[in-house]
Design brief:
CATH class of the largest domain: Alpha Beta
Number of helices: 9
Protein name: 3-phenylpropionate/trans-cinnamate dioxygenase ferredoxin reductase subunit
GO cellular component, one term: cytoplasm
InterPro entries: FAD-oxidoreductase/Apoptosis, FAD/NAD-bd_sf, FAD/NAD-binding_dom, FAD/NAD-linked_Rdtase_dimer_sf, Reductase_C
Keywords: Dioxygenase, FAD, Flavoprotein, Oxidoreductase
CATH topology of the largest domain: FAD/NAD(P)-binding domain
GO molecular function: dioxygenase activity; oxidoreductase activity, acting on NAD(P)H
Length: 402
C-alpha cells in the first residue's frame, strides 16, 4: 500500500509527518533518514555543554509509534521513479508513495583549495563530537568563515582555551544577514575574548599543521574548521527531472512541478509571485515549512508566508532577527543593559524586519512581537518603535480612522 513518504528525518521532515497526522491522514507515513538513530536538532551542535556536543531529540520512538509513523533510519533514498510513484532505497527496496516530500536539507560547502580535505565541517553529531574532542586546551584552531556558525564555534572554543583565528573572504564578519551595528558589537566582543578575526583573505592551501593564505602567510593550525555556508541537497530531485533554482523549486504551497511531490526546509526554493525564488536557512523555517507541507500532503491547501525568525548565542550575547534586515534601519530602540533593536519599514510604513542584540534573552519578547507586526502588515510610526516605553503589542491594533 502506498502512502506519504518523507525523505529527510530532520526538523522539517519530522514536523511534516506529525502535521499530516494532525490533518487527519490515516494511511502509511514513512520517514526515510540517512543518519542512524532518532532524529535530532542541529542548532545545539554549535552550543555544546561541558561534556561535548548536545544531542537534543526532535521526538521519541514512543511519539512516532503513537502516531503510527515509521522511521527508516540509516537508510538513504537513491532514486525517484515518478512514473511508478516509488523511491529506490539504499537497501534495494522500492518504496511506493501517493505523496512524496523532499526534506533533504543542505550540506556544508567544501573548501576547494589544495588540502581542503584537512578541514572539518559541522553538520552532524559526529562532526560536532570530532571537533570538540580535538579542541582541547591549547589547540590552535583556524575557522574559515565568519558567519554565524563560524563565530558561534569561535565563542565556544576560545572558552575552552583554544587559540582562535577566524578567516573571512569578505570585507566584514557577519556580512550576510546581520545588521552592521549589531555585527560590530559581536565582533568587538570576540576581539575582547582573544579571538583573531582576519577579513579580505583567501586560503591557498591547508596542511596538517598550517593554513597558508594567498600571498604566503602561514597560520599554524592543529584544527581547521570550514564554516563557509551550505548548499541545498538537490541531486535526488534533479535526477528525477524536477526544476532546480537555488534549491528545489516549489510554489507557495511547497509543491514542485510534479503535483504529488513537495519540498520544504533548507532544500526548498519558494517561488513567490513577483519576487522570484527564495530559500530560507533557519530552524523556524524548517518548522513552518514542514508543518505546511505535512498538512498539504494530507490534502490541505496551505501556503507558506515569511517572515521567519533566526537567532544566535555567542558568549552571553543573544542575537535575534526576523524578516528583511538589509540596508539602513528606519528606527532603533535601546532597552535596558544596552540591548538594542533595529527596525526596518517599507515605503508604506509597514514593518518588514527587525533585529536585536542584548545579554541573554533581552530582545526576545520584542522580536517575537515584531514578527507579529510584520505578519499583520499594519502601518507603524518610527517614533513608536524607537520609544522603549511603547508596548509593541499595542501597535498590533491599527489606529482608528478619523
Amino acid at each position: 500500500m502506498s502512502g506519504i513518504v518523507i525523505i529527510g528525518a530532520g526538523e522539517c521532515g519530522v514536523r511534516a509527518a506529525f502535521a499530516a497526522r494532525a490533518e487527519g491522514f490515516d494511511g502509511e507515513v514513512t520517514l526515510v533518514g540517512d543518519e542512524c538513530g532518532m532524529p535530532y536538532e542541529r542548532p545545539p551542535l554549535s552550543k555544546p555543554d561541558a561534556n561535548g556536543a548536545t544531542l537534543k531529540p526532535i521526538c521519541t520512538a514512543e511519539m512516532l509509534a503513537a502516531k503510527n509513523i515509521m522511521l527508516l533510519d540509516g537508510v538513504a533514498a537513491k532514486h525517484i521513479n515518478r512514473e511508478a510513484s516509488c523511491v529506490r532505497l539504499s537497501t534495494g527496496e522500492d518504496l511506493k508513495y501517493s505523496r512524496l516530500l523532499l526534506a533533504t536539507g543542505a550540506s556544508p560547502r567544501r573548501l576547494t583549495c589544495e588540502g581542503g580535505e584537512h578541514a572539518v565541517t559541522l553538520r552532524t553529531i559526529e562532526d560536532a563530537n570530532r571537533i570538540y574532542s580535538a579542541a582541547v586546551k591549547g589547540t590552535r584552531t583556524v575557522i574559515i568563515g565568519a558567519g554565524l556558525i563560524g563565530l558561534e564555534l569561535a565563542a565556544e572554543l576560545v572558552g575552552r582555551g583554544n587559540k582562535i583565528t577566524v578567516l573571512e573572504a569578505g570585507p566584514v564578519p557577519l556580512g550576510r544577514n546581520v545588521p552592521q551595528p549589531l555585527a560590530q558589537r559581536i565582533v568587538e566582543r570576540h576581539l575582547a575574548e582573544g579571538v583573531d578575526i582576519v577579513c579580505n583573505v583567501e586560503v591557498a592551501r591547508i596542511s596538517s599543521r598550517a593554513v597558508e593564505l594567498v600571498g604566503g602567510q602561514l597560520i599554524a593550525a592543529d584544527l581547521v574548521v570550514a564554516a563557509i555556508g551550505v548548499v541545498p541537497n538537490t541531486d535526488l530531485a534533479q535526477a528525477a527531472g524536477l526544476y532546480i533554482g537555488n534549491g528545489i523549486a516549489v510554489d507557495e504551497a511547497l509543491r514542485t512541478i510534479d503535483t504529488n511531490i513537495f519540498a520544504a526546509g533548507d532544500c526548498a526554493s519558494v517561488n513567490f509571485s513577483g519576487l522570484g525564488l527564495q530559500r530560507f536557512e533557519t530552524w523556524q523555517n524548517a518548522q513552518f515549512q514542514g508543518e505546511i507541507a505535512g498538512r498539504n500532503l494530507a490534502g490541505a491547501s496551505g501556503v507558506f508566508r515569511p517572515p521567519v525568525w533566526f537567532w544566535s548565542d555567542q558568549y552571553d550575547l543573544g542575537l535575534q532577527g526576523v524578516g528583511q534586515t538589509i540596508g539602513k534601519a528606519t528606527a532603533q530602540r535601546t532597552l535596558s543593559d544596552d540591548a538594542k533593536i533595529l527596525f526596518y519599514l517599507n515605503d508604506a510604513g509597514q514593518l518588514v524586519g527587525a533585529a536585536g542584540l542584548g545579554v541573554g534573552n533581552a530582545v526576545a519578547k520584542d522580536i517575537k512581537l515584531a514578527q507579529k507586526l510584520i505578519e499583520a502588515k499594519v502601518a507603524v510610526a518610527a517614533a513608536s518603535l524607537e520609544d522603549p516605553t511603547t508596548n509593541l503589542k499595542k501597535l498590533l491594533k491599527p489606529a482608528p480612522a478619523n
